[in-house]
Amino acid sequence: MAGRFSLKKFTDIDLEDVFFDTLKLDYPGTANSTGFVDWFKKKSATGATALVFEDEVGVGAFIVLKQEEEPIDLQDFSLPAKKRIKISTMRIAERYRRQRIGEGAIGLLLWKWQKSDVSEIYVTVFDKHATLISQFEKFGFEKYGLNKDGENVMVKSRSHIDFSDSYKAFPFIKGGFDHAGYVIIDDDYHDTMFAYSELANNSIALQNKVGSSVSNGLSKIYVGQAPVLHYIVGEPVLIYRKYTKGNGKRFRSCITSYCVVTKAFQAKRNNSYLMSFNELKKRIGNKSVFDESELYRQYISFKNMTVMELLYCGYFGARNNVNMDWLDNHGYWAAHGQYPTAVQLTERQFSNILMEGNVNVSNVIIN
């Protein structure tokens, strides 16, 4: 079931795909709103586009955004007119349940919102879509009330970002942190885990080595062998793609992405087990690039086993990645004899690396 998101014109999307049957039933058209089929045809006529996830079966996800500047009429009151991005449609196919496509899709939408100058993003969802509602709540959307059609109106605003939880704050990072660090990941594993962190000469597609849930989701599991857990929950980290294919590591190994640590624990220390393998599996879930047999091999053979959950907050993109040579020349890399994961970067150093990757730091780190 491999696939990936792409931007497609409505005219290139098959409205007869069975995927759209539930949307046709949910939105037949009322006195207050246009029916889905008529709306789809109008969008086609204007050359509009949608974010579509497709696989060999057909459409797996369908998402449409639009910018508005008008009041939102609720049953009891109205929200005043202002610039907003509306997630006008978002639907995930049943076959992708528990594959974390919904989580990844929300990430793509919030990245797009982050790059805009719009203060709010909102979505309308019927109560029966409880899983989708919980996903939006996880990422900081708040229920404001019901609209005329009985849908929940859920809004996320730049003006009151909840930094008590990294998911609710996503894709922003709270300023004033004490330090940041590096997480080093071999190239093959990196390219599966971080599907949008492209290289200049290697556009990364979703990999088939592991379940698509690893690529689709925003939360990633990192397994290491450090004897001491250096990272803390809430700490920003830079993802370093380690080149393993031959010479040229200094210029081909690079920072591609940035994350926030959301969980950190040790499963094993000095050959002493700190949890059972079943507990380890449960805590990792479907977020690791390693299958069960490989995880068990590591669990048995590693002297130390450190596990972190990372929230994929952003990426530099092709031709913007920051290589080891630049880091070293600017004093941001490990000193002689020091392993890079032990490096602690200041907020200023972390910001400078983001700027070198053409990231608008003021739109990522919020004070």
Walkthrough of the structure:
The protein is α+β, with helices and mostly antiparallel strands. It has 2 domains: 4-160, Aminopeptidase (3-Layer(aba) Sandwich); 174-366, Archaeosine Trna-guanine Transglycosylase, Chain: A, domain 4, CATH 2.30.130.30. The protein has 12 helices and 16 strands. The protein has helices at residues 21-26, 36-45, 101-115, 130-138, 166-169, 187-193, 212-216, 249-252, 277-284, 292-301, 324-329, 347-356, and strands at 4-9, 49-54, 59-73, 78-92, 120-125, 142-146, 152-157, 173-174, 181-186, 219-224, 236-242, 254-269, 272-273, 305-315, 322-323, 365-366. The protein has a 7-stranded mixed beta sheet with strand order 1-2-3-4-5-7-6, covered by helices on one side. The longest helix has 15 residues, at 101-115. It is globular, with a radius of gyration of 22 Å. It starts with a strand and ends with a strand.
Fourth-level CATH superfamily of the largest domain: Hypothetical protein
CATH architecture descriptor name of the largest domain: Roll
As for the number of domains, it is 2
Q: Average pLDDT, to the nearest integer?
A: 90
Q: How much of the polypeptide forms β-strand, as a percent range? A: 25-35%
What is the helix fraction of residues, given as a range?
25-40%
Series of H and E elements = EHHEEEHEHEEHEEHHEEHEEHHEEHHE
Structural class comes to alpha+beta
Shape annotation: globular
What's the Cα radius of gyration? 22 Å
What's the SSE blueprint?
Blueprint lengths: L3 E6 L11 H6 L9 H10 L3 E6 L4 E15 L4 E15 L8 H15 L4 E6 L4 H9 L3 E5 L5 E6 L8 H4 L3 E2 L6 E6 H7 L18 H5 L2 E6 L11 E7 L6 H4 L1 E16 L2 E2 L3 H8 L7 H10 L3 E11 L6 E2 H6 L17 H10 L8 E2 L1
Parallel strand pairs: 4-5, 8-16, 9-11
Antiparallel strand pairs: 1-2, 2-3, 3-4, 5-7, 6-7, 10-14, 11-12, 12-13, 12-14, 12-15
